[in-house]
Every structure is written in C-alpha cells, then in structure tokens.
Amino acid sequence: MLNKKFVILLAGCLLAAGLASAGEVKKDPWHRASGNKIAFICRVSLDHELDSGFYATGLDMVTDQNKTAGYGYVSYDCDEYVFPPMYGDLGEFSEALISKGDFKKGFYLPFFSVQLFGSRIAGLKLPLGADVKFPEEAKYVYLGSFTYTLESGSLLVTKVSVQDEFDDAQAVLNQKLGKNVQLYRAELTEHQKKDKS
Amino acid sequence: MMKKRCAAGAALAAVLILLSGCVTNSNVVEETPDKTPGEIYQKMSVSRKRKLIVELCRTYTPRNSVLVYGSCSTNGIAFIKNAVPLSMKFLQTDPAKPAQHLEYLGDHAFFYKPVSPGGSYRLYYSETLIPGGREYTYYGIQQGPTAFDFTAPEKPGLYYAGDFEINYNTKKAVSFSSDPKDSTWYRRTYEKNTSVYEHGEKKLSDCEKQSLEYILKFYKDTAWEPLIRARMEELKNAE
After folding, report:
1. Buried b (16+ CB within 10 A) or exposed e, B199-211
2. Do B102 and B121 meet the contact criterion of CB atoms below 8 Å apart?
C-alpha cells in the first residue's frame, strides 16, 4: 500500500515534469528538505561509456544523440510500467525529494530506471533489489553510489558495485544547498518479500 | 639501404592492410543519416515508401544484404484474431555489425528494409490493438527475446521470418501496459510449424506467397525483384 502511494507520487512528479518540459528530461535544482520531505542523495553510473552513436542510430534518435541520460528510482517491482521522474544525470550525484508520508522508515528499491537520450523509449533497467532503511530523524539520506557493468550489445547488467562516497555526497549536498546539513547513511539490505495476505 | 628496405616494407604492409580493409569492408553497409535516404516508417504513404525503398536498394543489394519478410495471416476465423501490429520498432544490437533501425512495414504481410547479414535485431517498442484498447509496449533495449526478434542469415538474399499470430490474455488486457503477458505473439516457421490455435491456420507456404506478392509491390524494378519472383516460382512448383 505504502509502495503504491510512493509510485503514485513518482508518477505525479513525472506528469508535472512532463507537462513542464514536453518530453525533455528535467532535473530540478537541489532543494532543502523542508516540511515532511526527505532528500535522497545517490550516484548512478556505468563503468564505461556507451557507444551513443550506435544506439542512437538503432533507436532512430540520431538528433537526440547528445542528450544526457537521466536516472530515477522505481519503488517496487511493477507489472505495469511506471513513469519515473529522472532525478539525476547518469554519472552525477542527484537529489530526490520524497514526502515522508509515503513511507515510514524505508522502502523497496528494485531498480533504477535510466532513459538514454532523455527518452522513455530508450529505457534501461539497472536492478538493485534492496530494502532501504534510514534513521527516523534523517532529513538527508545518502543511498550509495552504484556503478553498473553492462554487456555489450544487449546492455544487460552483468555486475553492480556499490561504493561509499559519503564524504563526496556530503560535500556536493552542502555546496548545492549553500549551507551545511546533516547527511545520514541509508542501510541497504537484500529485499525481503512481504506476505501479501 | 636498411632504411629504404624498411620504408619499402612499411609501404608494402600499408598497401596490404589497405587492400585487406577494402576486401573485408566491401560487403559492409554502414548506415548513417548522410548515406541513406532516411528511415522508412509504417505511417508513410505507399508511394513514399516505394520511392525510399528504390533509393535504399542502390546501397542494399542482394549481394550485401538480407531482405526479411513475414506474415500475420495464420488465423482468419474470428475477427479479433486478425489483429496485426500497428507499429513495431527494432534496433540492431550486435556491436560487430553496423547500427541499424527497422520499422515493421505492412499489414497481414510485412517486410523490413534490407538488413545487414548476421545482424541481431531486437524489438524495443510495439503498438497492438487488444480487446478494450491499444497496447503500447516498451520492451526497451534489454528485454526480450520476443517472437519478432531475429538474427539475419549470414548469407545475403531473401529470408522468410515466418508467420506470426497473437494470443491474448484478456484478463490482463489493459492499455498502457508493458507486461508482455497481455498479448503474446507466436512465430510459425517451416522448422516449427505449429499454430497456437487449434483450427483455422493457413498453410505456411500460402502465407509466404501472400507476403511475396505484397513485397513485390515495393521492390519491383529493384535488384531484389528477380529473387522475389524466383522464390514465388519455387513455391508454385512445390505445390
């Protein structure tokens, strides 16, 4: 139920972003986590650059070849497609502001969603399969830094490595907000399936 | 003297490398926006498609390419089973082969523009009519395989991909879904000639003949025409 609320929120964010940018991937500047919001910081990257010309030609998106790939979160292993908002540029730190009311102390993060060339049609799934927990008092939460290795051609994920770049994330956060704030580490554990009954 | 010998040797090696490059690359068709007349889309008029195909066939010939065609004509009993893809988009995923984008062109008989021999083509987007609406499926680059995915033969020429039929899971039939369970395509080939339905299937050779007649409208007066006619004759003689 909580997950569904979270997904609805994500879909709403995308709709708003979509209306504002007419299909362009839009990344808001970083904001302070005020009210009941929590800011999640992370970095998602690939261990080698994709041959953008190859995929842009294959996907008939040559004119969009130089657009930066965006990444966002998907909060549960969905049967139906979720329109995730793109929070960050692939390879860069990002901030996602989520309402605390949409979850209590954590959520399930099955995969990151990537849009090459800023387009949903060029989507990639970067699986994670982690339950995310964080301290109740946290307003700023560092999820981690995730580097994916992809098979050439089909771009299937062959390896994911998680790095702790907490200090870098803290520095970027302070710099983006223009003030020092307390960043907390999230605890990522292997996803435990909940009994639906 | 030694220097001259080295220089002569290097020049000879360079010539050999260049020649070998020419030989190995002579059959590779590299598609770039500058070199081709542009993409051919399903929504284009027949005359526009035909014009682009004729232009494209100056580059993609039966000596360096594969012309892939197929059909969605197995079932003709219930109206709903006659559905054909409204749109299908493919990308070539083998990094060793030239990048290429393909569109499903046609109706109950279909074809793609000529493709690279040995290329692996993956469906990444489709639109299909399903009971109660239209299904938009974003397979993405990573998903698959689907019945429509194919690897082109290494030998240039014609390639019949088979006949395709759709099976619905009406309980899950909803619009804007990416779940391939909602409708699933099945492929029938000469090697695996079984229909998912228990009745109504056409002979596969009849499906192929229908497909050949259709593609001839587009490939007439190109280097592909004699091959298409020869295959039609072959099927006729096999009856």
Report:
1. eebbebebbbbeb
2. yes
Pairing of strands B66-71, B157-168: parallel
Distances (CA, A) of B90 to B72, B73, B94, B141: 17, 21, 12, 9
Nearest-CA distance B203 → chain A (Å): 34
Q: Report d(CA B224, CA B226) in Å as an integer.
A: 6
pLDDT in tens, A26-69: 556 899 999 889 999 999 999 999 999 999 999 999 988 889 89
Asked if A51's CB is within 8 angstroms of B32's CB, the reply is no
Asked if A59 has any chain B CB less than 8 Å from its own CB, the reply is yes
> A153-156: long-range contacts (C-beta < 8 A, 24 or more apart)?
A153/B93, A153/B94, A153/B95, A153/B120, A154/B93, A154/B122, A154/B141, A154/B142, A154/B144, A155/A50, A155/A124, A155/B141, A155/B142, A156/B142
Please tell me the pTM assigned to this model.
0.79
The residue of A121, A125, A149, A158 whose CB has the most chain B CBs within 10 angstroms, and thus the best one to mutate to test that interface, is A121
Interface confidence (ipTM) of the complex: 0.78
- Residue closest to A70 by CA, chosen among A112, A10, A25: A25
Task: List beta partners, residue A141.
Answer: A40, A184
Q: Which one-letter DSSP state was computed for residue B225?
A: H
Q: What's the pLDDT tens digit per position in B58-112? A: 989 999 999 999 998 766 555 555 578 899 999 999 999 999 999 999 988 999 9
What H or E segment, with its residue span, contains residue A112? strand A106-115
Strand partners, A111: A74, A127
Give the list of residues 6+ apart from residue A192 with CB closer than 8 angstroms, or none.
Answer: A131
Q: Is the pLDDT of residue A118 over 80?
A: yes
Residue A101: partners with Cβ closer than 8 Å, 6 or more residues away = A5, A36
